Amino acid sequence: MDFKTGDFVVFPLHGAGVISGIKECESDGETKKYYLIDLPYANLHLMVPANPSAGTGLRPVISRSEVEKVLNFLRNSEVMPQDPNWNKRQRDLLEMMKSGDIYRTVAVYKYLALRERTKALSSGEKKMLSSSKKILFSEIQLASGITKEEAEILVTGCLD
Fold first, then answer.
1. What DSSP element (H or E) covers 133?
2. What does the pLDDT look like over 5-55, one tens digit per residue?
3. Distance (Å, rounded) from C-alpha 85 to C-alpha 112?
4. Which residues contact 148 (CB under 8 A, 6 or more apart)?
5. In whole angstroms, what separates CA 80 from the centre of its chain?
């Protein structure tokens, strides 16, 4: 997919942001195009290859109408069963987040957020919960046109 300056995008494992520019750089005698992405929620600035074959997983932010579907999925989906082996569980959750799919990220967030209420999370799980929050909250924020705080309240309220 070809993006332009001003487009809202999601970069897997980092979250949602806006394309602030497009830059061409020369590397190995070849000119390559890169998207400059500002991720306001995480306070990051990235330079991502624009070539689809680079496999970056960059995708458009969900539509405003899709936000309610995502929130309903968070409210109503069953918590996915997880492998009792923490190492396998960690790999499975990470693969889900790497996919860039919003529903798979929601499933990871829900599983870890609810697990945290009843059991101490490992440091790896805490990091993944933090990452899934950042990704989910930032996309809901940009798709809905609301503040960071409003997105956090909207999403966390779905688990109560």
1. helix 123-144
2. 999 999 988 999 999 999 999 888 889 999 999 998 888 899 998 987 667
3. 15
4. 40, 41, 137, 141
5. 19
pTM over 0.85: yes
For the chain, where do the domains classified as CATH 2.40.10.170 start and end? 8-60
**39 DSSP 8-state letter:** E
In the structure encoding, which two tokens stand for residue 112, read together?
Answer: 């870890």
Token duo for residue 89: 């569980």
Classify burial at 40, counting beta carbons within 10 Å of its beta carbon; exposed 0-12, middle 13-18, buried 19 or more. Answer: middle
- Tokens matching residue 147: 């503040």
Residue 129's contacts (CB-CB under 8 Å, 6 or more residues apart) are 109, 112, 113, 116, 121
* SS3 call for 16: strand
Superfamily in which the 64-159 domain is placed by CATH? CarD-like, C-terminal domain (1.20.58.1290)
**Digit-coded pLDDT (tens) for 73-107:** 999 988 877 777 778 888 999 999 999 999 999 99
Domain 8-60 class in CATH: mainly beta
Q: Where are the beta strands (DSSP E) in the chain?
A: 8-11, 15-27, 30-39, 44-49, 59-60
